[in-house]
Amino acid sequence: MTASKTLRQRFADKEFITAPGVFDGISARVADRMGFPALYMTGYGTVASHLGLPDAGLASYTEMVSRVQTLASVTTTPLIADGDTGYGGLLNVQRTVRGYEQAGAAAIQLEDQEFPKKCGHTPGRRVIPMEDMVAKIRVAVESRDSADFLIIARTDARTTLGLDEALRRGEAYARAGADILFIESPETEEEMAKICASFDTPCLANIVEGGRTPVVSRDRLVELGYAMAIFPATGFLAMGAALASVYGTLKNEGASVGVTVPLDDFMDFSKMMGFQQVWDFDKRHAS
């Protein structure tokens, strides 16, 4: 992973960061060409794409760090990677942070849910004691090799324990050294504004279409005080709808004639996936 400007520099320069969710090699390559300041490896989308399973603590550290390495290897845009709960205790957090950084991520997101964790906009989430998460953040900070590898601290306390508890946890996580605060699932714009007004540390908005948090414009996010927004589900929700439409046409018509979803040009898509390098290699080494 290379970039002309680090995420830390962008935050220092007060740039608003929009990060689309990527979840496999195709989505990562498509987004990487678009000029975003960052990409977000969504846990939900990655687990669904890689394993065909729900984001419910079923994927292991080994599986997820492999995904980080794959996505980072095919992109040049800084990659923010979902690290779930750190996959265990404090030693696991140390291993996770070091592994994600070595795999090429520019930042890791860690959350204070009990294991097994659940997707942030679904019911049934429970959080660990605040002091336990503070320890995880401290270990994460001391385990990274570079200060440019950012630690994102997420709390899921809002849904079950209320906004005040979520804010209390955010303050504690900031004191522990988190670079970015992620107060998950505020339910009104007023709550979103209160979150951003409560901290000097940059705040992240998680925008999930159909989720618990209002979906608002970029200008409104800036007005509310956010420094960054991730859109983890937008890509795979679009993909799901597009595939359902295309496969429906194939099922009903027995052919692709009549497909209404826009299709990429096959040769252009092949070049995006790296076939031009294959063709060039073959030419250089043709007998």
Automatic annotation (TrEMBL):
Keywords: Membrane, Transmembrane, Transmembrane helix. GO terms for molecular function: catalytic activity. Pfam families: PEP_mutase. The chain crosses the membrane at residues 224-247. It comes from the Bacteria. InterPro entries: ICL/PEPM, Pyrv/PenolPyrv_kinase-like_dom, Pyrv_kinase-like_dom_sf. PANTHER family: PHOSPHOENOLPYRUVATE CARBOXYLASE, PHOSPHOENOLPYRUVATE CARBOXYLASE FAMILY PROTEIN. This is Carboxyvinyl-carboxyphosphonate phosphorylmutase.
